[in-house]
Specification:
The protein is of the alpha/beta class. The protein has 12 helices and 11 strands. It has one domain: pyruvate-formate lyase- activating enzyme. Helices cover 37% and strands 18% of the residues. The termini are far apart. The mean pLDDT is 95. The site of iron/sulfur cluster (SF4) has 10 residues, from loops.
Length: 283
């Protein structure tokens, strides 16, 4: 894992498209390229539109470039009306964050100038390292954590996202955040091959909230923009899991998870409506 550094020109970006539809005003991306390197990650398919350089999308996951001045920039550009999603283009608690922490300084900057809402999107149990800062910020403003849990089957996890922590560690992190009083959502996105009912029950048991989620992006239902990397399709073909890319099968899986959630008194929300839960005002 190679860690590079850069001085960014800006740190908050006005959102458009999916995130705007969900209700966010800005995104914050603390690094370029993500050392989790998930095989399905849609970010490298965005190329320059994801703020990437060719070496990022050709060597996705092999290095990351940290914006080391992120906290300083935020101290100057943050304001109280912003609804911020961190991050659409990298996991803020990617493996490199353990080696060179950026998030403590970013959260400290938010403490000085809290936004209206901060949504942290992650799959990294490392977030628990910053629990005190997150709790302090949650006492000042709305903080939500969307924690990605993509399958209940760890052999699947190790095929499609080999550098991510096992599901048990991720569910444990969701529970710890909830028990600390943080508004944390189990986000089943993208839905990898799984046992839908088992996954839904485990996610609900950890979060005690409505579930957010989305199937793998496919061109049949999303004609333009970011999509699933070819590397994931190759793995699916090798393990006879291609149906997880078929819209009709995906809809059946979403429906099955929805049934489990409703039986427990919760909803299962997908697309902008799902991620909109992270951006909504409480009043
Ligand atoms: S953690 Fe998210 S941003 Fe990072 S490689 Fe995986 S899917 Fe992409």
């Amino acid at each position: 894992m190679e860690i590079r550094q850069t001085q960014a020109g800006s740190i908050l970006t006005r959102v458009s498209g999916f995130l705007q539809e969900a209700g966010f005003t800005h995104s914050l991306t603390p690094a370029r390229n993500c050392t989790y390197g998930c095989l399905y990650c849609y970010v490298p398919t965005m190329r320059i539109y994801g703020g990437l350089r060719p070496e990022d999308w050709t060597h996705w996951g092999q290095f990351t470039t940290l914006k080391t001045n992120a906290a300083g920039l935020l101290a100057r550009s943050g304001h109280a009306r912003q609804i911020i999603y961190c991050s659409p283009l990298v996991d803020p608690y990617q493996p490199a964050e353990r080696e060179r922490p950026l998030m403590p300084a970013i959260l400290t900057a938010f403490l000085k100038r809290p936004p209206a809402i901060l949504a942290i999107q992650t799959r990294g149990p490392l977030i628990l390292r910053d629990l005190d800062l997150i709790c302090a910020l949650a006492a000042k403003t709305t903080v939500r954590v969307s924690f990605s849990v993509t399958t209940n089957r760890d052999e699947v996890r190790s095929r499609y996202e080999p550098h991510c922590e096992p599901n048990s560690e991720r569910l444990h992190a969701v529970k710890e955040l909830r028990q600390a009083g943080i508004e944390v959502y189990a986000t089943l996105a993208p839905l990898l091959p799984c046992d839908p009912e088992t996954l839904a029950c485990a996610a609900l048991d950890a979060s005690h909230r409505e579930l957010i989620g989305d199937p793998l992006h496919v061109r049949a239902t999303k004609a333009h923009g970011a999509t699933t990397r070819e590397a994931a399709r190759k793995v699916a073909a090798r393990y006879h899991e291609e149906r997880w890319f078929h819209p009709q099968f995906q809809a059946e899986v979403v429906s099955r998870i929805g049934q489990v959630a409703r039986a427990a008194g919760f909803a299962f929300l997908t697309g902008p409506k799902g991620f909109g839960r992270l951006a909504r005002h409480n009043h």
